[in-house]
Amino acid sequence: MLRSLVLLAGALIAATACSPLSARPLVDVAVVDRDSGDWLPAYPHRGQQWIAGTPGHRYAVRLTNTSPQRVLVVLSVDGVNAVTGQTAHPSQAGYVLEPWQSTEINGWRKSMDDVAQFVFTDLPDSYAARTGRPDNVGVIGVAVFEEAQPRYRYDYPAPIARGEREQDRYGGARDAAKSSAPAPAAAESRADSMAAQSIGTGHGQREWSPVSRTGFDRASRSPAQVTQLRYDDYASLAARGVVPRYPRYPDYRRDEPRAFPNGFVADPPRW
């Protein structure tokens, strides 16, 4: 079994509603704009999911365990492990979520007590670019592992040996089935990947975000789920054809009446 020293996600945000496991992935992944309070919607485009980030805004990655067992989530931002700072690989450390747990990861892990905030920023100012790794800027991804369960020994009947003729018959059928399997689909257009990326994730201010250490035995070497979200600013997504070119919100004239003229609570005047 593969045992890793991993982090137990600290704040329990909420419990998910029970639903059939086949209807959803092991872990739901969403991105929340912490400055506007909005959940960033995902736009499907050419087999990928895209979100629009606002430069200068802080964000959090919300992880929700939809299963009745613990899972390990290795979080990658711009191709960098959000816990260790290494170039991301599924075998690395991550966060452990309890059954049905939902939590928000607010930044790059700096210690057991704090993180450096995730913030949308110009690509040259992104953490990945500043550390010489700009190739995967614009991707948020997770690799999810199930926990190994205790093994119990069972005495199974001895297998029946097949004769050579029977082996040839069934083995040949299997080989034929393999050879007749359809070839992998042709690679999709790389227009999106070749388009210039505008924003990345910066290394923001420190904030308190405590976690604890725990052990976790992975059920397999390969993750049970890999999910990724592409992101860029709205104008760039519009240029790629991911979203409409018109603004996300109605453009009201100043002299027109509006049902909700104000947004959120403003800061008080300075002394």
UniProtKB/TrEMBL annotation:
Keyword Signal: yes
Signal peptide interval: 1-23
Biased composition (Low complexity): 178-196
Residues covered by region (Disordered): 167-227, 247-271
Superkingdom of origin organism: Bacteria
Biased composition range(s): Basic and acidic residues: 167-177, 248-258
Alphabetically ordered keywords of this record: Signal
Protein name: Uncharacterized protein
